[in-house]
Amino acid sequence: MKRFSGFLHVMVVLFCIFAFGACSKKAVPSKGEFGAGAGYGADQAGTGPGGLGLSESQWRELGLNTPAERQEFMQRAQGFENDDVYFSFNGYTLSEEARKTLQVKAEFLKRYAKVKVTVEGHCDERGTAEYNLALGERRATTAYHYLVQLGIPSGSVTMISFGKERPLATGHDETSWGKNRRAHFALNFQ
Amino acid sequence: MRYLWRFLPAAMLILLILAVFGPAMSADAAERVYIDITQPFFQRLPVAVPDLKVLTGGDSQVAKDAAGTLAKDLELSGLFRPLDPSGFLEDPQKMGLTETDINFPSWRRAGADYLARGGYEVSGAHIKMQLRFFDAVTGRLVVGKVYEGDLRDWPAMVHRFADEILMALTGEPGVFGTKIAFVQASGKVKEIYISDFDGSHPVQVTHDNSLDLSPAWSPDGTRIAYTSYREKSPKLFVVNLLDGNSRLLSGSPGLNTTPAWRPGSSELALTRSPDGNPDIYLISSSGAVVQKLVGGPGNDTSPTWSPEGRKLAYVSDETGSPQIYVLDLGSGQKKRISFSGNYNTSPSWSPKGDLIAYCGTSGGHYDIFVVRSDGGGVRQLTHGPGNNEEPSWSPDGRMLAFASTREGHSAIWIMSANGDGARRLTRLPGEQQLPRWSPRFQHRE
Asked: Domain spans of chain A?
């Protein structure tokens, strides 16, 4: 019994500490914040087009040797990563706008043929976690197939679903939900 | 680390049942009328649970706590209404233990139809507990047991006795020794936890420091399969609860999610997507694919087995929105069984037969529904507030665990199978979701 009551005491203390933290969470406004990169930039090894993640040998691997080339790459890479492809609720087909976005990405990938990309499928917060994992997978797959159709080698692209686990926007309205129903494209370097 | 795995005391402890009291039991069996709590207008049975009597040895705290645990079990069953002990006139340390030395009329006057009475002896780290359950109206013993074992395992003994009480009155044992696995979210990290069926003693099972989801109990209750991103993409792992070791079971490219162990076998159904399209596969205990169970152009996921393991309910969005389907493995026939609303997911098949609980939409929120496996008899069990999702049946088919945001952040709740008596189980910081009720554990006697 002693062991359990000690454990319970710890849980009660923890609960009190977190209860105060939890109170402030309830004041989140309905218009959510957009965390740039939502933290998953840190999850990926070797990303970071801000020039921070790339070593000299990685630059040379990409065939980019002059400061001007590298600067141009970093700018284009930033645009590449910032531009997500969006989907309708429960949907995983590509809109006309989505196709245009993917065409721009395909151009980037053809220009910098050594670069690899991970397509992430995401969902908004509504509905069950498990179905959303499947939906996110399908969104990633759909974007992937279109890139391959546009001539990108399949070996350059990997896919992963995060379901509703890694939202970008934290609000609870359609504006936030729309931002989260996305395929995101994260660059990988060797 | 071994001590962490003592949350399976019922499986590990050795209980000696020295005597079964109640010589009139066999005569009663022929005329036994079981109580059916699902009938309309069922009124909870008032029961008195005074503190246990300390016979020898110290630790009188157990006297109070054991009575409290038994009363809470009986109350959670939906069958009983425990009376307030502050209204009891008799001193539990003085009153008798058996039918010949208990003043039943006095208890009837206090409002009790039933009386639970017990005593115990402690010597060192050892306890011997005798528990009896009486019909206070007739003064007859309904069931009596003696338990012996490690002092720390007294809660398991009380839970076992509560199971026996339910068995005697309803023909089906209770689930008071069972556990509930769930996902505990703290910031970006999600780990698998286990608590007692009443939410007490939560214990962290995984330490992956990653995104862990969808715990699923093996049929013998010794292992939990779950999805983890600890190797970057969603792969299926199995943790052995007896030694804490976890191993990779399925790591195919894409999804390895929503595990469901097949009753009466060592196989699992799960969602895989090696070609990018989520489908439901059957894998062996070594992770090898046995067959694809559900394919097609839509997304298929969230399998749940019928009790005999011959049918599977699952989610498919092949019609454009996620709906519940039933696959008969024998014939290969698939049948859609949900038809209202445009979002029906998270099915859970009752271990006791023909009901499937699932999550559907109602008035802009998510709520729990039940339906027969032929698609008929849809009933809505929750009506808000907040979202109520991810139902999981208790092994006796009498209760459902589910995730609810009715009090803010998502927590695990339980309710009776008819929707009554919803109560909150988890009070941890962060969020709790994806509950999964354990099977009954094997007992060694």
From this structure: 54-188
From residue B92, give the alpha-carbon distance in Å to each of A79, B125, B130, B263. 76, 23, 14, 45
For chain B, list the domains and their CATH numbers.
Answer: 2-170 (3.40.50.10070), 179-437 (2.120.10.30)
Fold of A54-188: 60s Ribosomal Protein L30; Chain: A; (3.30.1330)
| pLDDT > 70: percent of chain B | 90
Type of residue at A67: P
Q: Which spans in A150-182 are helix H?
A: 174-180
Cα–chain center distance at B149? 24
Query: Which residue type sits at B123?
Result: S
d(CA B223, CA B240): 5
> CA B277 from chain center: how many Å?
33
Which helix (DSSP H) or strand (DSSP E) does residue B105 occupy?
Answer: helix B104-109
Q: What angle, 0 to 180 degrees and rounded to 10, lies between the N-to-C axes of helices A67-82 and A96-111?
A: 160
Residues in chain A whose beta carbon is closer than 8 A to a beta carbon of chain B?
1, 3-4, 7, 11, 14-15, 17-19, 21-22, 25-26, 39, 90, 92, 126-131, 133-135, 137-138, 140-141, 144-145, 159-161, 165-166
> Cβ contacts (< 8 Å) between B369 and chain A: which residues?
none
Contacts of B254 in chain A (CB under 8 A): 137, 159, 161
Here the ipTM equals 0.87
| Rounded Cα distance, A151 and A136, in Å | 23
Helix (H) or strand (E) holding A131: helix A129-149
Residues of B whose CB is below 8 A from A18 = 429-430
Q: Rounded to the nearest 5°, which phi and psi values hold at B135?
A: -80, 110
Comparing CA positions, the residue from B346, B4, B392 lying closest to residue B175 is B392
Cα A57 from chain centroid (whole Å): 26
Q: Which of these, B227, B173, B232, lies nearest to B197 by C-alpha position?
A: B173
The distance from CA B427 to its chain's CA centroid, rounded to whole angstroms, is 17
Residue of higher predicted confidence among B28 and A35: B28
Stronger pLDDT, B78 or B64, i.e. the higher one:
B64
Q: B45 in helix, strand or coil?
A: strand
Kindly report the nearest CA distance between residue A69 and chain B, in angstroms: 32
Please determine, for residue B406, whether its predicted confidence score (pLDDT) is greater than 70: yes
Is the CB of residue B193 less than 8 Å from the CB of residue B182?
yes
Map A40-84 to HEC letters.
HHHHCCCCCCCCCCCCHHHHHHHCCCCHHHHHHHHHHHHHHHHCC
What are A96-104's contacts with CB under 8 Å, separation 24+? A98/A143, A99/A146, A102/A143, A102/A146, A102/A147, A102/A150, A103/A150
Nearest to A141 among B61, B65, B276 (CB): B276
Determine, for residues A129 and B434 on separate chains, whether the beta-carbon distance falls below 8 Å. Answer: yes
For residue A171, is pLDDT > 60?
yes
* B299·A14 Cβ contact <8 A: no
Report CB contact under 8 Å: B346, A159: no
Report pLDDT digits (tens) over A2-32: 454 555 555 555 554 544 444 444 433 333 3
Residues of B in contact with A160 (CB under 8 A): 232-234
Asked whether residue B19 carries a pLDDT value surpassing 50, the answer given is no
